[in-house]
Amino acid sequence: DSIRLIGQFLSSNSLHSLTKLGVANNNIKNYGAQILSKALVNNQTIKSLNLSYNWIDYRGIAMIAESLLENKTLTHLNLSKNYFGDEGTHIYNIHTFIYTFIYLLLL
User: Fold this and answer.
1) Is the C-alpha dihedral spanning 33, 29, 97, 6 positive or negative?
2) 3-class DSSP state for residue 78?
3) Are strands 20-22 and 76-78 parallel, antiparallel or unpaired?
4) Which 8-state DSSP code applies to residue 72?
5) How far is CA 5 from CA 28, 32, 81, 85, in A?
6) Nearest to 69 by CA among 95, 30, 32, 35
7) What pTM does this model have?
8) Three-class SS state of 76
9) CA distance to 37, 104, 107, per residue, from 10 (Å)
10) For every residue of 7-60, which 3-state class applies, written as one string?
11) CA dist 77 to 1, 21, 50, 102, Å?
């Protein structure tokens, strides 16, 4: 499927000129979030990623947040209009804290 192909390209860093990726409104759910989170660990080119409107819940958000501990390139992540639920709100706040902390370390 297409999200798996996107994940493979991101993992390989073969698209050196690709710095922005929009995957909004593609219904990738947690399955796609898992693939992208694994790819983000290795990716060194993507600076902006739009994952809005994809039915990702708190588990998918947690996977993405965890990948940001390894990824030092991503500076903009849009997770709006996904289903966080109460658990996801807590994870999203932790993600925001971690991501802000990492960003400040890189300044």
Assistant:
1) positive
2) strand
3) unpaired
4) -
5) 13, 11, 24, 29
6) 95
7) 0.79
8) strand
9) 10, 24, 24
10) HHHHHHCCCCCCCEEECCCCCCHHHHHHHHHHHHHHCCCCCEEECCCCCCCHHH
11) 23, 10, 6, 14
One-letter identity of residue 50: N
pLDDT in tens, 64-104: 988 988 998 999 999 888 887 666 555 556 566 555 555 55
Instruction: Classify 61 as helix, strand or coil.
Output: helix
Interacting residues of 74 by C-beta distance below 8 A, sequence separation 6+: 40, 43, 46, 47, 48, 49, 68
The position carrying tokens 């798996």 is: 4
The rounded Cα 34 to chain-centroid distance in angstroms is 9
Helix (H) or strand (E) holding 77: strand 76-78
Model confidence pLDDT, tens digit, residues 66-77: 898 899 899 999
Tokens in use for 40? 């983000």
DSSP type of residue 73: S
